[in-house]
């Protein structure tokens, strides 16, 4: 046989995909999580609980199959696989984790214990963190365009909605808290969204024109931005307290305002504080965005006979939109979090459950307020990041 014939008949050996150093973190977390308690079992809402290990918290077959699947996907994170495969495996692991933890109440709680509570424990949160990191890593390596990124977010949110609607998690303590506070939950959700988005809208009405003026007048910029920066340094609790005094005095002096809901406690001081916090990112990003508009584009618009107002509306603001939207994202994510603290002054929102749960030592009631806040902030960040990136893309 000739050398060429031998080479042609040689079977190529499969190549090892290689080692991924970034993947060591989720792999180590996943391995650690399987040795930690998956859930906490309590005989009632306020009693002390005990952790139940992954292998004891599930039916034997589910524990064996699910544990093996999660361990294998965790090990796969250490390999240099395609970004799409990395993202897909992470999503499979997260879906498996959601399904497995729904089995825990039936395996841990006895039928004769109607008040028993089964809550997420360290193992669940560690697995969620591990595969969340893996999913984020895969998504970042894919460098998804804005459209597919939003579609992926929508698919995840729909899957979560389907999980809750199916009743699969109804045995878990957080869903029992939701069932006990169903009407109040949605009322507080409307309040939370109203404060976060309403303060953003008010900040845009004031901040956009002020930002344009700062870009045009350096002296105004030198005075306005430092003043707004001072506002950002005031802690949220102190800011809410500062707003309570003038609004309380104003409501006492003008009873009509009190009838409209403007008083020293409640949504009014919270909304005003959030509005003031939102001004700096909107004003600063508007000014910086306009500063970054290419002079050639402005001169070309001027040469076409565009006046100042039309040039601003048709050329400068569209070109500055990515930077402005980045400021809007900062404001919205910031305000969604700060609304939680507003519950301390009667502002309502998801913080109501956080502080009620803290006072009652009911961690699942705390989660009932914290989890939707995180989901809302994450969704807003992804959507506005995608909008900013889309606005910055120039047509081919």
Automatic annotation (TrEMBL):
Its main location: membrane. The keyword Metal-binding does not apply. The chain crosses the membrane at residues 22-41, 53-75, 87-109, 115-138, 150-169, 189-216, 237-262, 338-355, 362-384. It comes from the Bacteria. GO terms for cellular component: plasma membrane. Gene3D superfamilies: MetI-like. It is found in: Cell membrane. Belongs to the binding-protein-dependent transport system permease family. Residues 189-384 form the ABC transmembrane type-1 domain. GO terms for biological process: glycine betaine transport; transmembrane transport. This is ABC transporter permease. InterPro entries: ABC_transp_perm/SBD, MetI-like, MetI-like_sf. It is a multi-pass membrane protein. The keyword Cytoplasm does not apply. Keywords: Membrane, Transmembrane, Transmembrane helix, Transport. PROSITE patterns: ABC_TM1.
């Amino acid at each position: 046989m000739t050398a060429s014939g031998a080479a042609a008949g040689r079977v190529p050996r499969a190549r090892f995909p290689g080692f991924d150093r970034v993947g060591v973190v989720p792999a180590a977390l996943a391995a650690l999580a399987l040795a930690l308690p998956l859930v906490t079992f309590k005989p009632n809402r306020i009693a002390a609980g005990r952790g139940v290990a992954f292998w004891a918290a599930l039916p034997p077959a589910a524990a064996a199959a699910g544990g093996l699947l999660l361990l294998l996907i965790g090990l796969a994170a250490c390999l240099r696989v395609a970004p799409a495969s990395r993202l897909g495996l992470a999503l499979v692991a997260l879906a498996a984790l959601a399904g497995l933890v729904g089995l825990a109440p039936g395996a841990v709680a006895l039928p004769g214990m109607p008040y028993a509570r089964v809550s997420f424990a360290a193992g669940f949160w560690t697995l969620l963190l591990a595969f969340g990191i893996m999913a984020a890593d895969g998504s970042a390596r894919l460098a998804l365009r804005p459209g597919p990124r939003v579609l992926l977010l929508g698919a995840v949110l729909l899957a979560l909605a389907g999980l809750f609607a199916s009743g699969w998690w109804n045995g878990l303590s957080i869903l029992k808290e939701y069932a006990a506070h169903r009407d109040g939950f949605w009322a507080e959700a409307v309040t939370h969204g109203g404060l976060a988005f309403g303060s953003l809208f008010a900040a845009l009405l004031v901040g956009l024109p002020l930002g344009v003026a700062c870009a045009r007048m350096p002296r105004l910029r030198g005075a306005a931005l430092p003043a707004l920066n001072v506002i950002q340094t005031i802690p949220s609790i102190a800011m809410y307290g500062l707003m309570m005094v003038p609004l309380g005095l104003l409501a006492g002096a003008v009873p009509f305002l009190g009838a409209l809901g403007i008083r020293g406690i409640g949504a009014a001081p919270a909304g005003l504080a959030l509005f003031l916090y939102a001004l700096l990112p909107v004003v600063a990003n508007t000014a910086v965005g306009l500063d970054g508009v290419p002079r050639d584009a402005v001169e070309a618009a001027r040469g076409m006979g565009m006046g100042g107002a039309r040039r601003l509306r048709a050329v400068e603001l569209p070109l500055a939109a990515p930077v402005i939207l980045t400021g809007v994202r900062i404001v919205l994510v910031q305000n969604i979090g700060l609304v939680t603290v507003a519950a301390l002054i009667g502002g309502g929102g998801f913080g109501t459950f956080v502080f009620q749960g803290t006072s009652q030592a009911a961690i699942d009631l705390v989660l009932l307020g914290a989890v939707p806040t995180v989901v809302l902030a994450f969704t807003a960040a992804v959507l506005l990041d995608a909008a900013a990136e889309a606005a910055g893309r120039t047509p081919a």
